[in-house]
């Protein structure tokens, strides 16, 4: 197709493009996006669309004078989801399918693989998957929170080689372009670090969506660590999609890791939420070697935070708050708390070597966190 040689693309579209006037869905910006998707498919490139906008699309049907409770926003999402899917469906002459997800669907490994299998079946049958967070039913605990990060998780799950995140600015600037006319657009970012995050300027100008530039950077970090080329582009401009199709960079491109994380490590690091924390002595961080090992036993545990079961993802951090790793726990929070208090039968502690606190093959070291 072009110099990027894409095989499978995940395209994320935000609420500001779906319902720019906050008065239901509009095709104003969707036509050029739909044309881009059609061109990709014509050239053998598979596309997964992650579309926000259900709340914004459904808000016009409710009394906006009253304060919007969580229940009202969920009802807006239920109404708007139908309208949004109808808008997309009218723009294509091929079938589309709806995938509504929550963090809980991504959190459990079996369900994560089920999502992956469903998406591949849709793609293999030339059906366009349209993904959104299930805002109508999800709770705060089960919420991803924004579709930028969700799009990166989906990109990883479907083995995409490109993630395109649409914004209402041209890309990442070194300062807020809305307040600083001298702000400069970064055309290419090789590594997302603290300096890059410092450039995030908060929510976009549209004021409709839940994300901002920071969530887009978080998504780019998730995707690039999985070896996925990532763009932030201006979805308001038809020229953005024309340039992408021509193999040009219309916004900011984030280069993928040369050595991507292994799939299960990426899932633990960027998709699975920690259900609790294990607090260890500060010197554990100093004992971590260059080979990224994390070794500690029950005597190093200071405290256990939260409730979790065997097999849940946990965060390991020091007393000072330094985040060392995420991992799959080999013990419940109850047992680990007893270990920390040394209030457990000695025979159980002696058998710990056969059942360590964490397993090395489910350990993801967190760098510079």
Please estimate the helix content. Answer: 25-40%
What is the total tally of β strands? 13
What overall form do the CA principal axes indicate? globular
Summarize the biggest pleated sheet: 8 strands, mixed
C-alpha end-to-end distance: 39 Å
Tell me the fraction of residues in β-strands, as a range.
15-25%
Order of adjacent strands in the largest pleated sheet: 3-4-2-1-5-7-8-6
Low-confidence stretches: 203-210
Mean pLDDT: 85
CATH topology of the largest domain: Carbamate kinase
- The tally of helices reads 14
SSE topology string: EHHEHHEHHEHEEHHEHEHEHEEEHHE
Sheet/helix structural class: alpha/beta
Count of domain modules = 2
CATH architecture of the largest domain: 3-Layer(aba) Sandwich
Structure overview:
The chain has 2 domains: 8-266, 3-Layer(aba) Sandwich (Carbamate kinase); 274-365, Archaeosine Trna-guanine Transglycosylase, Chain: A, domain 4. The strands form 2 sheets. An 8-stranded mixed β-sheet has the order 3-4-2-1-5-7-8-6, sandwiched between helices. It has a 5-stranded mixed β-sheet with strand order 10-9-11-12-13. The chain has 14 helices and 13 strands. The chain has helices spanning 15-18, 30-42, 54-58, 70-91, 103-107, 109-124, 147-157, 194-197, 213-224, 238-245, 263-271, 283-287, 333-340, 346-350; strands at 8-13, 46-51, 96-101, 128-133, 162-167, 188-189, 229-234, 252-254, 276-280, 301-305, 313-318, 323-329, 358-365. Helices cover 34% and strands 20% of the residues. The chain is an alpha/beta fold. Pathway: Amino-acid biosynthesis; L-proline biosynthesis; L-glutamate 5-semialdehyde from L-glutamate: step 1/2. One of its GO terms (molecular function) is RNA binding. Residues 8-234 form the Aspartate/glutamate/uridylate kinase domain.
